[in-house]
Amino acid sequence: MKLNFRMFATIASLFVLFMLAACGGSNDTASDASGESGAVSGKIGVVSFMTGSGAAYGEAITNGLELAEKELDEAGEVDVELVIEDSAGEPDQALSVTQKLINSEDVVGIIGPTLSTEMEVVGPVADQNGVPIMGTSNTAEGIPQIGEYVFRDSIPETQAIPASVEKAIEEYDAKKVAIMYGNDDVFTKAGYDAMKDAAEDLGLEELTTQTFQIGQSDYKAQLSKIKQMEPDLILCSALYNEGAVIMKQARSMGIDVPFVGGNGFNSPEVIEIAGDAADGLIVATPWFTKKDDQKVQDFVSTYKDEFGKEPDQFAAQAYDGLYLMAEGLKNAGEADRDELRDAIAEIDGFEGVLGDISFDEDGDVVMDPTVLIIEDGEFKEMK
Ligand code: 1QQ
Fold first, then answer.
1. Which residues of 178-212 are buried (b: 16+ CB within 10 A; e: fewer)?
2. pLDDT in the model for residue 379
3. Are 264 and 60 in contact (CB under 8 A)?
4. Rounded CA gap, 80 and 41, in Å?
5. Is residue 239 part of a domain?
6. Pocket of ligand 1, beta carbon within 6 A
């Protein structure tokens, strides 16, 4: 018995040595953390709003991610594989798909979910399980503060709203505003807080505040009140579906003052849905397709070739988000969740299509937004 085992062990080791020699050395044998080329490899889970009322956000996000995945694959330095899950914009569904990703050992980090309402539920769970998670579209206050594994590359409303309100005051000599916001969503409420603060700080008179809910289709009661008060501007915190319908109804009621919106309003879908009525919408964003920057122009043209339309802010933030994860993986040197977290936190001045990206000590990104206005059915820079 003993002899047989020894003989078997000898033959087995000779076989292993033979195989190693045949493969040209240990470098070429893939390990869990290294791809065939020796590059660090890891799976990145994605939780995205791909079906339902905000599906255009999810479409832009997954397009941006898939383009980045393809380019990274071609460059060969880091080998990332996306594992994409749909949350339908629902916190419960976001949580269950996130748990699935957390339980999958090969998933080293997660991108998403799309809404702050979802991230508030999912972020603490990823954090407690030690899985780095990066929001690429969450703009409510307090998201990266959920925990040390939570990051975002989207600027908070508190950075964007004051910039757009200030520009609107300058341009239209605005003194009196009406505010409208969705009171059943974390982002729309955060946008409202930022609008109220900006209005106060900039000395605007607040004539009225009107609320609405996700999925509402008739805003005439709110808009009639607003119309009576004759504001110079309407500050409106909404996701694109509600926001576009609000603008359409406002214009049909003869309200033609500019609107200032937050992140949710900054989508080409607003123009799709509202048509001409979208003219006069002002938003602040770190993304602008016409930026005089080679990296931005290359991204815009490859994205257009690939998907037949220009990338919006959600596509750009997702695209940079995957590059940030890849940079983290490369610097971590192995597909390890804790090492990846530390490596992301250390990223400093990464050159993305959004600009130079670094994180502050909370994991929040710091960036200067550009203010845009929709004119003749197009987003244009307000200089
Ligand atoms: C948030 C947002 C939304 C507009 C993302 C689609 O900014 O929920 O934080």
1. bbbbbeebbbbbbbbbbbbebbeeeebeebebbbb
2. 94
3. no
4. 6
5. yes
6. 57, 114-116, 137-140, 187, 239, 263-264
What predicted TM-score, i.e. pTM, was given to this entire model?
0.90
pLDDT digits (tens, 9 = 90+) for 279-295: 999 999 999 999 999 99
Q: What is the mean pLDDT of the chain?
A: 91
Query: Closest Cα to residue 370, out of 359, 354, 358?
Result: 354
Per the structure block, which two tokens stand in for 103? 């339980």
Tell me, yes or no, whether 151 and 162 share the same domain. Answer: no
Query: Residue 261: which domain range?
Result: 158-285
How many structural domains are present in the chain? 2
- Do 217 and 69 share a structural domain? no
pLDDT single digits (tens) 30-50: 334 444 567 899 999 999 999
For residue 36, the model assigns a pLDDT of 54
Q: What CATH number is given to the structural domain containing 358?
A: 3.40.50.2300
Pair (182, 275) in one structural domain: yes
46 and 192 in one domain? no
Task: Give the integer Cα–Cα distance in Å for 168 and 152.
Answer: 27
CA 32 to ligand 1 center in whole angstroms: 35
Cis check for the bond before 113: say yes or no (omega within 30 of 0).
yes
Q: Ligand 1: which atom is nearest the Cα of residue 266?
A: 4
- Assess contact for 62 and 53: CB atoms under 8 A: no
Partnered with residue 85 across adjacent β-strands are: 47
Q: Which atom of ligand 1 is nearest to the CA of 264?
A: 4
Query: Are both 254 and 322 inside the same structural domain?
Result: no
What is the mean predicted confidence (pLDDT) over 201-230? 98
Closest residue to atom 4 of ligand 1, CA basis: 264
Q: Is residue 98 part of a domain?
A: yes
User: Which of 256, 285, 314 is at the close of a domain?
Assistant: 285
> Of 195, 239, 263, which is best to mutate to test ligand 1, by the most ligand atoms within 8 angstroms of its C-beta?
263
Give the domain-ending residue among 236, 255, 285.
Answer: 285
